[in-house]
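Task 17 of the worksheet. Students: predict the tertiary structure of the chain below and write it out as structure tokens. Keep your answer in the requested format; marks are given for formatting as well as content.
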Amino acid sequence: MTRVKVIRRAVIAGACVAVSVSGCGFQGVNSLPLPGAVGRGPDADAYTVKIANVATLEPNSPVMIDDVVVGSIRSLRAEDWHAVVEISVKPDVAVPANAVASVGQTSLLGSMHMSLDPPAGEAPEGRLAPGATIELDRSSTYPTTEQTLAALAAVVNGGGLGQIGDVIHNASTALDGRAGEVRELLTRLDDFVGTLDAQRDAIVSSIKSLNRLASTFAEQRDDITRALDRIPPAIDVLVNERPRLTTALQKLGTFSDTATRFVSDSKDDLVRNLQNLEPAIKAFADVGPDLDAILEYAVHFPFTQSFIDRAIRGDYYNLYAIMDLTVPRLKRSVFLGTRWEQEGAEIIPAPGDPNYLQYTYDPLKLGIDPPPPNVAPPLGDVTYPPGVPAPSEALAAGHEPVPPVSPDVGPILPVRPPAPMSFPGQPVQVQSAAPEPGAPAPIFAGPYDAPPAPGGGG
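Model answer:
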């Protein structure tokens, strides 16, 4: 009776397990968590690893850090042509933030495992947060023993490994008795490689320049194509114009011969002219250092740069200037030292000259007689009207002094006309000072004194 109950209970438990497992998609006993697996407790940290090839990795395989088991594989599934591995790690283990996942074998014929170590040559950095994912670019798989043996078998059987002996024998035969030549060849190769290494930067720069040039050609490909399409018609035009080009070149040769003969014949005169130009060029060269200052001053003439910097505060400056370009003033200023100079030329008063205000073109204000030689009378010849006391007497009597009587003085004007200007080969014209008898006296309204009228003026 007791045995029947035991069998019944076992059947019921097995049925329950079968139902539960079949409802969850049972994939074998290895898909179930094994008792005693590392990092499978409720407080374990879970991570996801995406890897292209898991080889023969199975669930419950160990997860190692620095060759120490710290966890196990929970599950594996395929997604978008790569594997997604769920791993579980003990909570007290810090997975480096820069860790990379690698699938390999524990030994030559051992089981597969996954290691979470920093990249080779780098130290661990930080800590990977639980639930994080290690992407494909940070995972890899080591070759398995089967793959290594298969690659070696391919090399030994079909890779020509058996012909290495023949290759070595033939190489020994070719080098026998030629040790000196081979040594010299190797020396030259060493020098050549050393030269290339010394010019490595220049070679790299040249390659980069060629790359830029090729890029430029690639960008201008359409233009280059059009140019190549248009070059043949242009060449045809040159071929058609070849007789004219030949004639032009022949004429150019004739011109060159003529120019050479001309230079040879006039060599002495040309050398003499160049020697005569030497003082002028030397003077210009001497002025050269100050030429920039002269040009700078010519822009803001007549002010200097220092005056502009101190006086002008802005972009504009008001200027009122009078430029006298009359012929008499030019003769006495700019033309001095030339054939047109005239030191004693009578000039018209310009604004600012002492007698500018007395100058007039009005004949009514000009006067007929020239002014007396003494404009102002001597101090002793001052006269006062009858009955008018002298200033000292008026001040003594308490009256306002009366100014003295001064002779009538006309405008201060030049009284001689300028000498007539003469040129080489031209007769000098002389103007008579007095009109002919019987002719009316002219009225002179210019800046010069009028000729005296017959019988004197009044």
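Marker's comment: The longest strand covers residues 68-79. Residues 267-299 form the longest helix (33 residues).
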